[in-house]
Write a structure and sequence with these properties.
By secondary structure, this protein is mainly alpha-helical. It is built from 19 helices and no strands. The longest helix is centred in the first third of the chain and has 31 residues. It is globular. The protein starts with a helix and ends in a 5-residue tail after the last helix. About 0% of the residues have low confidence.
């Protein structure tokens, strides 16, 4: 218990140790957003209770739980993948159960979950249709989503011993969770307290499954570099293949994008309607955003040795742009093939817009990624209480905002005139930053190399 309390205090103190004003403002913004969203959902519950909408109260409650479930899982992978934090080193003399319990509790002590809890409490106070039973059930949904995210991170980052007894135990407990949830999933609103007990038992089985999964996957994946003497293979291919962390994050980003586009294709095949037309935010996955937000908005954080080589050999702007393009072209080609296959088969009606938007987004996001890598470098390495992404959150959200501007022609074709303005602004900003590069290179070196000292 002392270890948990100490870790929680250190976790809270770490939030406001640096950039205190900025983080306080962000937390305030999150609390205001929680109040706005709680009022919106309370209003929807009121309308559903009065019969003013097609949805009934149970459906609104179900969509609220699904909304939280999706947000918690997606926050770990979009706009960038966030690795699982290893708060206690494996060599530290702490039992596996104590380590698991401490890490689980500390992970829940975060501004995100604090804002989410405020959202639930405010909605409970605002709406008579959202009872204490529903509030406790939503808390169980949050915990289940967090355990799901942890399990996915373990599969991605660690080497699983598939034949160990711990893995079989995890599989049995996961099967128990599925068996308890298959009839009435947790996100369905409960009508009696007994159902809450069933959901609590299912969550307990899931937590135990996650514990055994971490025991069987205690070792990180081995870092290997595959060398090739074949001169016909380009440097871009070698950069993609040999940097395991960058490759892993890019491949997961492609998988995530393929999942979203596949869901849209399935909706077209079954209902004849695009999910993209129902949720405007899904259009973000049509562009190459995952390539930049996962890796290339911090390209020198991943390929820091390449940056140092160019800086010490010539240090010219032309060489920097050349090696950036070498590293970018293969991932961008894979993303483009994935997008255009989807367009050719399932969304050829919007082919002209998607092609124009994709080309413009490359011309906008590529300069922005170089700007982000120079102005806001981040060290690509896990650290104690390090829950941050591998690229700047600020520039990831700037990239999302600029990409949203490229969707304006969906409103009216005349808004294609926005494209030259956005592309020209991105290139102008890149030129301005490159002129100041000699001042930023010392910060790059300090961030990527001196941070290890």
């Amino acid at each position: 218990m002392d270890l948990i309390l100490f870790s929680c205090r250190a976790r809270i103190n770490s939030f406001f140790r640096q950039k205190r004003l900025q983080r306080v403002l962000l937390l305030s913004l999150g609390l205001v957003s929680a109040g706005v969203y709680s009022w919106m959902f309370a209003f929807l519950l009121q309308q559903a209770g009065e019969g003013s909408t097609k949805l009934n109260v149970d459906q609104v409650l179900e969509y609220t739980n699904l909304f939280m479930l999706a947000i918690i899982i997606l926050k770990g992978f979009f706009p960038a993948y966030i690795p699982k934090a290893n708060l206690i080193p494996q060599l530290y003399p702490v039992s596996a159960l104590e380590r698991f319990r401490t890490e689980l509790v500390v992970e829940l002590v975060s501004p995100f979950y604090f804002v989410l809890l405020n959202f639930l409490v405010l909605m409970y106070l605002m709406s008579p249709f959202y009872t204490l039973l529903h509030l406790l059930q939503s808390v169980l949904v949050i915990l289940t989503a967090h355990i799901t995210l942890r399990s996915l991170q373990v599969f991605i980052e660690r080497r699983v011993r598939w034949r160990s007894a711990n893995f079989y135990s995890a599989a049995v407990m996961a099967a128990a969770f599925v068996a308890l949830q298959v009839r009435k999933p947790m996100f369905y609103p409960a009508s009696e307290w007994l159902m809450l007990v069933v959901h609590l038992a299912a969550l307990s089985a899931f937590v135990v499954a996650n514990f055994f999964l971490e025991k069987t996957a205690s070792e990180p994946r081995r870092k290997t570099v595959n060398y090739s003497s074949n001169a016909r293979r380009s440097l871009g291919w070698r950069l993609f293949k040999n940097h395991k962390q960058a490759r892993q994050m890019l491949l997961f980003g492609f998988f995530f994008k393929a999942f979203i586009l596949g869901a849209d294709a399935l909706a077209v095949a079954k209902k004849g309607e695009h999910l993209l037309d129902q949720g405007g935010a899904l259009w973000l996955f049509v562009g190459p955003l995952v390539v930049f937000s996962y890796v290339f908005n911090n390209v020198w954080g991943f390929y820091r040795n390449l940056w140092l080589t160019v800086e010490r050999s010539s240090g010219t702007v032309k060489d920097f742009l050349t090696v950036t393009w070498m590293a970018l072209r293969l991932p961008l080609l894979i993303d483009a093939v994935l997008t255009f296959v989807y367009v050719a088969v399932f969304n050829h009606d919007a082919a002209f817009f998607i092609v124009m938007m994709y080309m413009a987004s490359v011309l906008v996001l590529a300069p922005l990624s170089i700007i982000a890598s120079i102005i806001s470098p981040k060290t690509v390495s896990g650290g104690l209480f390090s829950f941050s992404a591998k690229a700047s959150y600020l520039f990831n959200f700037i990239a999302i905002g600029l990409l949203c501007l490229l969707f304006l022609p969906l409103i009216h074709p005349l808004l294609y005139l926005v494209y030259p303005v956005v592309v020209g602004g991105a290139i102008f900003a890149l030129v301005a930053v490159l002129k100041e590069y000699p001042k930023y290179k010392y910060k790059l070196f300090e961030t990527h190399f001196k941070a290890e000292a």
